[in-house]
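Thread title: Can someone regenerate the structure for this chain?

I was given the following input by a collaborator and told the matching structure tokens would be attached. They weren't. Posting the sequence so someone can regenerate them.
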Amino acid sequence: MSEQISLESKIYELSFELSEVIDKNDLQKLLGVLANDGVYAMWVYAMDKLDWRFSKDIEEMKKMKCFRLMEVISNLSEFSSEKLDYDNVLKKIATLSDEIDNLNQELKNKKENNQEKRNKEHEKKEKEKIRSQILNQYFQSLAKNLNKLLFMKELLEKVLIYALYHAKAKGNEK
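Best answer:
Regenerated them for you:
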């Protein structure tokens, strides 16, 4: 019984936090995509429509809407056996972003088109690919278990519905 209370309490808390960050129109759209197309489609939609970008500054990323949504998903994932380690994801992204920035700087300094430059360009592309994959790994692993996926969808629907109610109640038109 106490786990249900904890879960409901967490849903209320997260929905309020989300309503502070994402405006009601985006919440409605996220909810519509989630309801019609599922968890992964909602995530891809969020990556397309909400503000975010890769950065080597973790605190900067934590302020962006899409990463705030990921934080909500991470908090919800505590209630399933498929945990999303939000801080670790951001740390990996920040590290790779820093490495990519360093490679970009090295490439700028190299004028000639030699093998070393091609190797650096290849390394940069690989790191960019890995960095992008990090954002989607959780959703890919979640999809392996239908029960966990459906449970997460149900939790996200509740959070988005409550966040939408919060946004409407306070006239949130961000």
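Residues 2-169 form one domain.
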